[in-house]
Amino acid sequence: MRASLLQIAVEPDESVDSRRARVAGLVRAQRGADLVVLPELWPVGAFAYESFADEAESVDGPTFAALAPAARDAGVFLHAGSIVERAAGPSGAGAGGAGDLYNTSLLISPEGTLVRTYRKIHRFGFDRGEATLMSAGSEITTADAAGAVLGLATCYDLRFPELFRGLVDAGADVFVVPAGWPARRRAHWTLLARARAVENQSYMLACATAGTHAGVEQSGHSMVVDPWGEVLAEGGTDEEVLTVDLDVDAVSATRERFPALKDRRLGLPTPPAP
Ligand SMILES: NC(=O)CCC(=O)C(=O)O
């Protein structure tokens, strides 16, 4: 599988519509890849909280409309990073309240159809930002795409190993993690991306934003890590494209050669809290 990670710079001097058009052009330029990955909330910026409500859209809204033809033209599966989703229907009732908004990833097929969505399960910000403005997803999500089973997670989810074990139990062999991670915690980002790969003997495609928005300098340093924990590619701090060939069969080979996942001890009794 050839994967291209587009480490997009999100800067305040570029409008959301301009960025959508520019990113669609970058996606079109990835013909020859099997899977293209974008970062978290790249249209608006993961820390541009004040713009979330104004820029919220449906899963088939302007971001999908800009990118679906680009995926089709390039003939690639496109993990389009995430958008601020305004949910319609019973979950949010389209009423405009905080309960309507989700941090939602889109997976688009080479035919330009929406094949999967994933609503970020762990919201970042503790008692502010995303954690108060958005609702949490609750579904562990995988997708068959580009010859692999993709396990979907988003940014802060990386800190929750149990989610990734859940994805492995659901058959994932390649994790795809779009992010908008601050530069000040870059060491956590690179460490956690490798840890999730090596402990789960899975590929990790971790695609972050570059640039500075809402006063938060972004980490960059997108990572591709193999199931043995080796870093196959790592970005710098500017916008760039990382293209890597993955051998998806290396996942089962690694799990057979070093079968640590089979040694899990599930269901041990928990001692009472002191
Ligand atoms: N957008 C995010 O989820 C940021 C996560 C983060 O900054 C961290 O976990 O640290």
TrEMBL record:
The keyword Hydrolase belongs to this UniProt entry's keyword annotation: yes
Residues annotated as domain CN hydrolase: 1-248
Keywords: Hydrolase
SUPFAM superfamilies: Carbon-nitrogen hydrolase (SSF56317)
Family: Belongs to the carbon-nitrogen hydrolase superfamily. NIT1/NIT2 family.
Name of the molecule in the record: Carbon-nitrogen family hydrolase
Pfam families: CN_hydrolase
PANTHER family: DEAMINATED GLUTATHIONE AMIDASE (PTHR23088:SF27), NITRILASE-RELATED (PTHR23088)
GO molecular function ontology, one term from the record: hydrolase activity
InterPro entries: C-N_Hydrolase, C-N_Hydrolase_sf, UPF0012_CS
Record's keyword annotation contains Hydrolase: yes
